[in-house]
Structures are given as C-alpha cells and as structure tokens.
C-alpha cells in the first residue's frame, strides 16, 4: 500500500486536504507501527518518491504562508494537514539517519521561519505547535546536518547566507544567539500557558524540545548552554508548574526539568531541599502505580542524582 498511497500524494497539491491528510497519516503510521525490518523498507520507499518529497516541501511552507485562524483552539483541515506533514518529515529525518537510507530529493527550509512558528505562535493550534517542535527536535539532534532536510538562514533560492555576527553566533551556527534566547523564553511561556490552560498535550513536547536544545548548545558552546540552563526564570517556572492542582514534584515534566537543571549544574535553580523533597515523595509513593511517563522521568532523575 505504501507505493500507491505515496504515489497518490505526489500527484496532489497542498489544497487537496481531504485526500492528503489521511494519506500522510497512513504513511506516518506505516513508519511507526511496523517491525524494524519493514520499517527500513518503508523508509526506502518513501525517500525514493521524489514527487512525495516535493509535495511535503510545499505543505511545510504553507505553515507561514497562510493566515492564523481566528480561534486558537480550532484545528482546521488545513492545520491538520500541516500537523501530518511536520510529523511525517520529523519521522523521516529520524529513520533516514538511523538506517542511513539514500535520499533522492532534499527538502529546504528557512530556520528563521521554523523558529518563528514557535516563538511567534499567532494563535496556532496546540497540535501544530507540538508537530513543529517534533521536527525541531529532530534537526537539533542531527546538528542540522541531515541529508534529507537542509535547514538554514534564508534558504530561499537566490538568497545570500548571512555571516555570523559574533564568535558566539559562529559556534552555534546555523542558530544565532538571539534566536536561542528567544526560543528559550517562548518555551518557558508555553509551559506557563500549559499550567494556566491545562493543555497537557503540549507540556511533554515543550520539555523535550528544551532538553534537546540545551544538549545541542552544550556540544556547540558550553558557556551558552550553562547560561541558558541557569536562567533564574526557570526557578519561577518550576514553582508555577507546582502551583496547580497537582502540587507533587512527581509530575513527569517537573521531574524532567529538574533533571535537566541538575545535569547542567544549575544550583541556583534546584537546591538540596527540593532534591530531598523529591526523594521523600518517591519513597512514600506506590511505585507500581505510577504512570509510565512518571516512572521513566523518576528513573532519569535518580540516575542523575
């Protein structure tokens, strides 16, 4: 089925939402819900379809070409197609790298546009933000060096590449230092939004994106990574997350944030008192009844301690 469905997608344009959206979802599920052997074959089939990849390029670019919806919580058919496109490309990025699959068509995206889609949300639906952050995590984990997707500043045809304005920008290339700080602030604000609006689909994606960003920064410039991880606003953010109905430290997102700050030695964010409180709560909890996400986050925290 991958052959006819992917060929069908390649014959469409981004306006064919009723046909494309379920088709891209089928391709996405085919990648994720199969055996490793079949997964590798599926990746090869999809990456060899030039028309499909050209279609995905057009779909992703629609993210910043179309007007924002009047209702932020409303997921229109166009937004649903964008979600499917971003998630599929993020998955292809991951599996192309894993299996070292041959790439027949390279996608090209403007990094500024991708970052601005998160930084300046403009009433984007939550699911679309989650999908874009999945893609952003994928390119960060590959240090922007994927064979499938070229992500850089001003990637439009004929545009000249801007030169890094400082040694720090050069170290973080293709990211600029100001973009890093803007993205961190936006992720912090999104977590506060999660707490106020109870958008719990968003919180794991935001924390995961922040984790991947700091890991990328640490490889490129330890000074910038440690500076980002020790921002005093993070402490206020933690107390905001703990001020909701569930005040326990044993929330997966809270545990993952604390683990992140411990990893990069942000002693001004996490004190010994909080560490003892988490250990106390864990010792009193029925570990067998903890949700899987909480158990995993607690395991990572204990290993870090």
TrEMBL record:
It comes from the Eukaryota. One of its GO terms (biological process) is meiosis I. This is MEI1 protein. The lineage of its organism: Eukaryota, Metazoa, Chordata, Craniata, Vertebrata.
